[in-house]
């Protein structure tokens, strides 16, 4: 059975240009990035039959069916939407430092982040210090829920009873890593992609942020390369 069946809605241009239509169309576009289910089609069709007056109030998640033409809560969960765990394709942030194995992987990923930063600095090591990992502060991983990975098939012809005897292993995960480097005690936060099977780390430099102040630590590079100021600790500041 399909977990994510395709469903699309096309609103006539003439309707989108009406007062109601503009709001409903904007809500529809926003809701495409929120958790919706086939049950929401019922409330949506009811709004077609009886145009609602209020198109701005966020709907109550206690209702199983929410209209796609009105605001759906950003934090709506599978449980609120009446979706059983084995059908839920939403991902969960999990602590990646609780178990020794997870912590070892997180440490390896933190080290990979520092190596990527140093590669950016390699041409200016005569100005900037080579960084090293001082501390892994926090690590989280974005993973499918356990019952989704266990799902193998259905036991009944109607598809209501799941067979959770599967042993699928996640092949990849997104990680959020927070670390501290030295010298300079800079804190970096980064979201990265880790492929377990290929043992490959993919880091987007644009996703690396430096939330604490770096003061004049990068004064020697800031006029030459502002981008590297995020990473540079000048030798005279060590």
UniProtKB/TrEMBL annotation:
Q: Which domain of life is it from?
A: Eukaryota
Question: What are the leading ranks of the lineage?
Answer: Eukaryota, Metazoa, Ecdysozoa, Nematoda, Chromadorea
Kindly provide the name given to this protein in its UniProt entry. BURP domain-containing protein
One Pfam family from the record: DUF229
Cellular component GO terms, alphabetical: extracellular space
The record's listing under PANTHER family reads:
FI08016P-RELATED
InterPro entries per the record?
DUF229
């Amino acid at each position: 059975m399909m977990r994510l069946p395709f469903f699309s809605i096309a609103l006539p241009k003439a309707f989108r240009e009406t007062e109601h239509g503009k709001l409903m169309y904007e809500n529809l576009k926003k809701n495409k990035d929120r958790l919706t289910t086939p049950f929401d089609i019922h409330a949506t069709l009811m709004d077609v039959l009886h145009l609602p007056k209020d198109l701005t109030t966020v709907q109550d998640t206690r209702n199983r069916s929410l209209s796609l033409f009105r605001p759906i809560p950003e934090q709506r969960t599978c449980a609120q939407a009446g979706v059983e765990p084995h059908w839920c394709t939403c991902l969960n942030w999990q602590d990646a430092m609780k178990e020794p194995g997870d912590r070892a992987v997180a440490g390896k990923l933190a080290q990979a982040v520092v190596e990527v930063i140093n590669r950016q600095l390699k041409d200016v090591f005569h100005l900037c210090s080579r960084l090293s990992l001082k501390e892994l502060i926090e690590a989280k991983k974005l993973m499918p829920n356990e019952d989704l990975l266990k799902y193998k098939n259905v036991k009944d012809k109607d598809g209501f009873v799941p067979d959770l005897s599967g042993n699928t292993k996640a092949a990849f995960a997104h990680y959020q890593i927070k670390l501290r480097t030295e010298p300079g005690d800079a804190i970096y936060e980064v979201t990265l992609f880790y492929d377990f099977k290929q043992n490959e780390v993919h880091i987007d430099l644009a996703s690396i942020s430096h939330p604490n102040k770096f003061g004049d630590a990068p004064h020697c590079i800031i006029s030459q390369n502002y981008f590297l100021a995020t990473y540079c600790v000048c030798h005279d500041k060590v």
